[in-house]
Design goal:
The protein is mostly helical and about 120 residues long. The protein is about 70% helix and about 0% strand. It contains 6 helices and no strands. It is globular and about 50 Å long. The mean pLDDT is about 90.
C-alpha cells in the first residue's frame, strides 16, 4: 500500500475489529463522533484572540495536534465505511470550489459564493 489514506483506513479497521467496535461504527455514528471531535478542536481556540490562536505554546499545540488527528481519523473511518476515495473527493471538491470562487471575482473577499452571480465581474 502506498496511499496513506488506505493504510490508515486499514489500521483503523484492524483497531475496531480487535475491540469489536465495528458494530458501533455506522456512518451516522461516525459523523456524529466527528462533530464532537471538531468541537473539541474548536475548544482549543475558544476565547483566544487571532494572534493568540496563531501563537500556541507547546501544550496547546499538542492538544490541537491530537484533536486534528481525531478529526482526520474519524473522516478516514467514515470514508472507508462509505467507500469514498478521500484524495479523489478532495481533488474533485477543489475543482468545484475553483468554479464557485473564480480568483478574479473573489480575490481578497470572504463573501460566500452565492453573493457572486454568473456574469458579474465585480
Amino acid at each position: 500500500m502506498t496511499d496513506p489514506f488506505e493504510e490508515l483506513n486499514y489500521s483503523l479497521q484492524q483497531f475496531a475489529t480487535e475491540r469489536d467496535w465495528d458494530q458501533f461504527h455506522s456512518p451516522k455514528n461516525l459523523a456524529m463522533a466527528l462533530t464532537v471531535e471538531a468541537a473539541e478542536l474548536q475548544e482549543c481556540f475558544q476565547w483566544k484572540t487571532e494572534t493568540e490562536s496563531a501563537e500556541l505554546n507547546e501544550k496547546e499545540l499538542s492538544a490541537v495536534r491530537d484533536e486534528i488527528a481525531d478529526v482526520q481519523l474519524y473522516l478516514i473511518r467514515l470514508a472507508g465505511k462509505l467507500n469514498i476515495d478521500i484524495e479523489k473527493a478532495c481533488r474533485d471538491k477543489m475543482v468545484k470550489n475553483a468554479e464557485k470562487y473564480p480568483a478574479h471575482k473573489v480575490k481578497g473577499s470572504s463573501r460566500k459564493y452565492t453573493h457572486y452571480q454568473k456574469g458579474d465581474d465585480k
